[in-house]
Design goal:
4-stranded parallel β-sheet; single chain; 5-stranded antiparallel β-sheet; 247 residues; 7 helices; 37% helix; alpha/beta
């Protein structure tokens, strides 16, 4: 395992990023996976810097990595205050932005960006965060692709919900909605998509979207839903991403 030990202050983030970026490239991660690792490590290190130590007397962070078979394994250790991830409430990403509580997004991003994330406290080592990114996986072969066209509004949203629910009832758990031909999306359409996503996630599945036209993408951006849904430029990209870890 290659490691680096550095003082836990915000000036260290650039050095940490450079270290883990080189490691990811040496392990063969593609550009997207490297970015995901960069962000997850940055969030973890920032949490240590801001919460594990007193600002006046910062301790150290030790970051390590190694590759084995199809896994890129990262460890981040500190001897600061004991961290219990169960004490951090999950962020409410479904409420309007102005109603959401501040905090919890860093841990949420770590668990969403990495394929595995485990927090331990060891008396001799302190806090140990182990994160894993899978190096290569074949795309899933059980993804249902459903093209949607025209308007998705109060009139058509129930029809969309019905069609998707029939797929879920037949066993579908991984679904891609191709919105390339959607010309109009209202709040009723957004609500339908949110309910579909919630139902699939409850069953251990995933929903991804692809091909949003500019006016449709703007509706997602205005409502903050670009932070909620996994959105891809093309259906081909989205289809392949189901086998590459989390969105």
């Amino acid at each position: 395992m290659e490691t680096i030990t550095i003082t836990a202050d915000l000036d260290a983030l650039a050095k940490i990023s450079a270290f883990i970026t080189e490691a990811a490239e040496r392990c063969g991660l593609d550009e997207r996976a490297t970015w995901q690792v960069q962000l997850a490590v940055d969030e973890a290190a920032t949490n240590v810097i801001q919460h594990a130590y007193d600002q006046e007397n910062p301790g150290d962070i030790t970051l390590g990595w190694f590759c084995e078979e199809n896994r890129f394994v990262i460890t981040l250790r500190d001897r600061g205050r004991q961290f219990d991830p169960e004490s951090v409430p999950p962020p409410d990403i479904n409420s309007p932005l102005e109603e959401r509580q501040v905090g919890g997004l860093g841990l949420y991003l770590i668990t969403r960006l990495m394929d595995e994330a485990r927090f331990d406290f060891r008396p001799q080592e302190g806090n140990v965060l182990t994160m894993v990114k899978y190096l290569s996986m074949s795309p899933r072969d059980d993804v249902v692709v459903m093209p949607i066209s025209g308007r998705v509004d109060a009139v058509t949203a129930p029809q969309l919900n019905k069609a998707v629910h029939e797929q879920i009832s037949s066993g579908t758990r991984f679904m891609l909605l191709d919105l390339s031909d959607v010309t109009f999306l209202s709040s009723s359409g957004l609500r339908a998509l949110l309910l579909i996503r919630k139902e699939l996630m409850t069953l251990g599945g995933e929903l991804r979207l692809a091909g949003l036209q500019p006016q449709v993408h703007e509706v997602f951006a205005l409502t903050g839903f670009t932070q909620v849904f996994a959105i891809h430029t093309t259906a081909e990209e989205a289809r392949a991403s189901f086998g590459l870890g989390r969105a």
